[in-house]
Amino acid sequence: xxxxxxxxxxxxxxxxxxxxxxxxxxxxxxxxxxxxxxxxxxxxxxxxxxxxxxxxxxxxxxxxxxxxxxxxxxxxxxxxxxxxxxxxxxxxxxxxxxxxxxxxxxxxxxxxxxxxxxxxxxxxxxxxxxxxxxxxxxxxxxxxxxxxxxxxxxxxxxxxxxxxxxxxxxxxxxxxxxxxxx
Length: 182
Known about the structure:
Layout: E1 2-7, H1 30-43, E2 51-54, H2 58-66, E3 73-74, H3 99-104, H4 117-134, E4 142-147, H5 149-158, E5 177-181
Parallel strand pairs: 1-4, 2-3, 2-4
Antiparallel strand pairs: 1-5
Helix pairs in contact: 4-5
């Protein structure tokens, strides 16, 4: 089974802002970026996907719709990391005694009133296992997923393509498409 995962396009937000579960508006460059993503999907050579899934956050599902997938399956497990109290704050402006703890061990320490990276990894792993089971009868299945940078990183970590220490260095650019073999 092949899983093609796409990170959403740019958002209209200042860099360094925590916008995990917040529905941020897309950047004005969305049409151009979305057309580039559409071309990447076409370049996979897959003419019909056996399953199309998206995060319910608008920056993901609007891209799915732009690319012609008007009825994808929405899955909450594909949401970005929930930053809790830090949502919509800039990292360098957060005043929270737990911030340094999180920086020191982001894998296990949750954001204040939010998730840890391990929480996100657990739900992304659960999603991947569920689609593996759902499509088990078709080992040649092609699955398409529209999600977020953290979700793509978690998928790569779950499939042991990267280590936990490499996670933050492997946040893919907006509009990236990765191919995973399951």
